[in-house]
Structure formats: C-alpha cells, structure tokens
Amino acid sequence: MTARKKPKVYITRKLPDAVETRMRELFEAALNIDDSPRSQAELVEAVKTADVLVPTVTDRIDADLIEAAGPQLKLIASFSNGVDHIDVEAAAKKGITVTNTPNVLTEDTADMTMVLIFAVLRRLIEGSRVLTENPAGWAGWSPTWMLGRRIGGKRIGIVGMGRIGTAVARRAKAFGLSIHYHNRKRVSPATEEELEATYWDSLDQMLARVDIVSVNCPSTPATFHLLSARRLALMQPSSIIVNTARGDIIDEAALIQLLRDGKIAGAGLDVFTNEPLVNPKLLKLAHEGKAVLLPHMGSATIEGRIDMGDKVIINIRTFFDGHRPPNRVLPGRL
Ligand code: DGY
Question: Which of 124, 175, 238, 299 has its CA 20 to 30 A from that of 73?
Fold first, then answer.
C-alpha cells in the first residue's frame, strides 16, 4: 500500500510546540520557529506551492494574495476565531475553503473582558503603578485615596450577544451586574431568562442607559465604526467602554476625544484600529488613568492556543479526508 502524500501546510507564525509537533507528524509543515511576521511578498511565495495556508490575525489574506495562489491551494485554515483578515469572498470564488477556530477562545476572551471592566473601574493598573514605579509615593491606606467604582449593581450593555457576548453576560451576572444587550437577533427566551437580560433593538437607546458598554461583535463591513462618534456621544459621562473584539468597531479617534473631554469616564481596550501600532493619544490617556490598554491578549492562554491549534489540525485533516471541515466559514455568514 502506498502512503498518502502529506499536504504541504504553510504556517505563518510560531504555534505552541505541541501543535507544531503534531503538525509535523501529520503534514509537510513549514513552521515559523522564530515567529517573525511574514511579509506580503513571503506570503505570495508561500501560496504558490502550499496546499494549505495557516494564517493568523496578523496576516492580510486579501484578494491579491488569493489571486496569486497556485491551483494547489485548496484550504485556508486560519488559526483564529475572527476572519476579518481574510477575503472570504475572494477565496470562495477561487474554490478555496476557509476555516476558523470558534468556541475554544470564548471563555478566555470573556474572562479578559471582565478583567478590563475590573481594571478600569477598580483602577488596577494605576494602583499597581504606584508601587512598581514609585513605592515611596504610597503613604499608606487612606479612606479617600485611589477610590474606584463598585462593579455590582451596575448595568452592562453587551454589543453582540454571540458566544463571547453570552459568556461575558454569564460572568457579569455572577458579579451582580444587570444584563442588557443589543444584537441583530434576539437570543432564545431560555437564555434571556437565565441571564435576566434586557434586549434593546435600538443600540442608541441601550448606549444611553448603561454604565458599562462591552463590544463583543465580529468585525464585518456592517460593524465598521458601529460605535461611531454620534453613538459614543450618547453614552453617559460616568460610563465606561471595553473592547475585546476588534479595533475598527469603535471610531477610535472619537473615543479618544470623548475620553479627553471627560464625556466617557474610561476605556478598557485589548484591540486597536492600527494594530500593532497604538495611537499615542491612547497611551497618554492610559498614563492619566483614563484607559487600560492590553496588546490583544484576550485569547492568550496556553490552553486556548493549544485548543485553537487542535481545531486547525482537525479542519485540515477532515478536509483532506474528503469531508466538510467542521469550522468552514462561508462568505457573509459571520
Ligand atoms: C481571534 O482569534 O480572532 C482573536 O482575536 C485572537 O485573540
């Protein structure tokens, strides 16, 4: 019996060792051991010979790149939940299947959303900086020093009640927040009941009434600047906003202005418009204690990243076994 030829798999970034080892066992896998981001020119070269491309959110898989691919490229198995970095339509037109890694980073991302809410309202980074940067500046406990704001009893408005939004709602409810949400579709009555959630078909109405806005929808053409200058201005001056989804869902320049003017009290951001570049005005706001900024760490747990790698492997194997991969992404379906 002749052994089946292993598919040529090009992986754009360093993955956890366990995932890379398994990929080398199963595929003719080209790894990126030193994790240097691949240039567009390197990607163009790769797609001329690879059967499978495994990109991440830091790669731009646009129509030009897909156009440059050789006929052997049959699968783009993204190591990511979001697929806004891939022109899924262009891939479909060329007969290339696209897959992603949903579900396995839901809980970690929801955890990080709560971390940001706590960090902003309880001034976590500011407090920690007092000790790490100027320990002598701490004169000891005081009844009125470094006061944040209580979490329990506030209203959270979740923008996008998919898997991650719902996981955020469960956590928020456990911390005593009232759940409000805006979504294209209302969630099931059972979920609404479990979360005691209030649905707003008008995002504008919800923004004006909640204390915490959490952005949890995918980045699509329809959600680009969903939190526009006009909508952000509807938020209460005491309210805060957290974003663990994608930077381009918020009009970042407008948010910066509103934070500077004290028209929004604080922001917790894990994602940015021009990643990995962060607007210096946001950095300044962070130094002033008006924003907590993280470098896109929402899903950054070793368990999550191994689970994502396992999903990529399952998608590739299922595809080359001649079946529909479990996490196929269809154009316009996110
Ligand atoms: C994804 O996979 O879409 C995430 O943004 C990575 O954290």
Answer: 299
